[in-house]
Write a structure and sequence with these properties.
By secondary structure, this protein is of the alpha+beta class. The protein has 7 helices and 16 strands. It folds into 4 domains: about 60 residues, no CATH class; about 80 residues, Immunoglobulins (Immunoglobulin-like); about 120 residues, Immunoglobulin-like; about 45 residues, no CATH class. The strands form 4 sheets. Strands 3, 4, 6, 7 and 8 form a 5-stranded antiparallel beta sheet that branches. α1 packs antiparallel against α2. The longest helix is centred in the first third of the chain and has 25 residues.
């Protein structure tokens, strides 16, 4: 089967054939342009305006991109890039800042890492001239303030960290500059994460906490005095949640992860401290086996709500008795103990029994 040419093999062979005969076609077009030009125009029209032509152009374009990427790894491309870099370095050394042209602004600015007290800002530089040497200036402004704070200037990289306050809205801006001038600013707005309170945080009108041990999510909503249970609507779904009071949304949207909606519990209680208000206590249970990249902790309950920084949260360390409750873990521990005992003494079962460890069927 491997000897049978595939579709992409035919396309690559056709591309090579076109490249080989292209010089002859160019000469023929120059000498017999009144014959060749109408043919070229008809071919271009057929390839760009008909469905058949588009079905040909798409795979051809894909193979051309593949061949271009492959050519960049070859010795010829390496030698060319090496010589070109030396040529640029030589011209830069000889002419210096005279080669600079007004730089272009970065094409994008964003946060690659966002915490509660620090962020990593990253931008995509754009080169106006390969002979120019651009540096970048990065500034940060807290929303509501008038002054911009310089994070770094005359910086040659494409990312830099900045110190921030927790749960605060910021605007960052970056621009390129050299001896010929400066580019326009490129801005990006973001909000830093909250410091965790316990294992949770706060949102608009509610607070929440979570447990990695039981998978519980506990939410508490502050409600007006006189609120009754019939005024509330709690609609949990596997991946979404809607909590409403008299039809007005208290919290609604897509959950950060999946839950078990049938296990949801809620109750209306009096506010703590003897106040006149009410509190809606809502308990959700994360679906077993669902984990985020941050482990068992969720940075928020509903996507789009304020997030907490989970990087410093520590998991609950299970005791041995809790590990034994899991049949799979118990079997694994038993196998490990048997391997250790076999390495020490052939009479492993007797030795384990003498140590007071369960053996045989007791582990089933």
């Amino acid at each position: 089967m491997g000897l049978i040419p595939t579709r992409k093999d035919f396309i690559r062979a056709g591309i090579v054939g076109v490249v080989v005969f292209l010089p002859a076609m160019i000469v023929l077009t120059i000498n017999r342009w009144w014959l060749m030009l109408p043919g070229w125009l008809a071919l271009v029209f057929a390839l760009t305006s008909t469905s058949f032509g588009k079905t040909i152009l798409n795979p051809v374009g894909k193979q051309l991109r593949w061949m271009w990427r492959l050519s960049q790894r070859g010795p010829i491309a390496w030698a060319y890039n090496w010589a070109d870099a030396r040529y640029v370095k030589y011209r830069r050394k000889y002419y210096g800042a005279k080669l600079d042209v007004t730089p272009l602004p970065p094409s994008a600015l964003g946060t690659s890492v966002r915490g509660c007290e620090a962020v990593m800002l990253k931008w995509l530089p754009k080169t106006a001239s390969r002979y120019s040497v651009d540096a970048f200036e990065l500034q940060l402004q807290e929303v509501g303030e008038d002054d911009w704070v310089s994070v770094v200037s005359d910086f040659a990289g494409d990312r830099h960290s900045a110190t921030t306050k927790a749960d605060t809205a910021y605007v960052a801006r970056v621009r390129a500059r050299n001896s010929a001038g400066a580019s326009p600013w490129v801005e990006h707005a973001f909000r830093t994460k909250q410091k965790p309170v316990g294992h949770g945080g706060v949102g608009a009108g509610y607070s929440w906490d979570q447990s990695d041990k039981s998978g519980e999510l506990k939410l508490r909503f502050a409600l007006p005095a006189g609120t009754r249970a019939k005024q509330l609507s709690v609609a949990p779904k596997p991946t979404s949640l809607a909590v409403k009071l008299d039809g007005s949304s208290l919290l609604e949207g897509e959950l950060f992860g999946a839950i078990e909606p049938d296990e949801t519990e809620w109750e209306l209680t009096a506010a703590e401290g003897g106040g006149d208000g009410k509190v809606l206590a809502l308990t959700l249970f994360k679906r077993a086996g669902t984990r985020s990249r941050d482990g068992p902790f969720w940075p928020c309950v509903v996507k789009g709500e304020p997030e907490i920084d989970v990087t410093g949260l520590k998991r609950h360390q299970k005791s041995m008795s809790e590990l034994y409750e899991d049949p799979a873990m118990a079997s694994l521990l038993h196998s490990m103990q048997m391997q250790q005992a076999n390495a020490m003494d052939p009479m492993s079962e007797e030795m384990m029994g003498g140590m007071g460890l369960p053996t045989g069927p007791a582990w089933q």
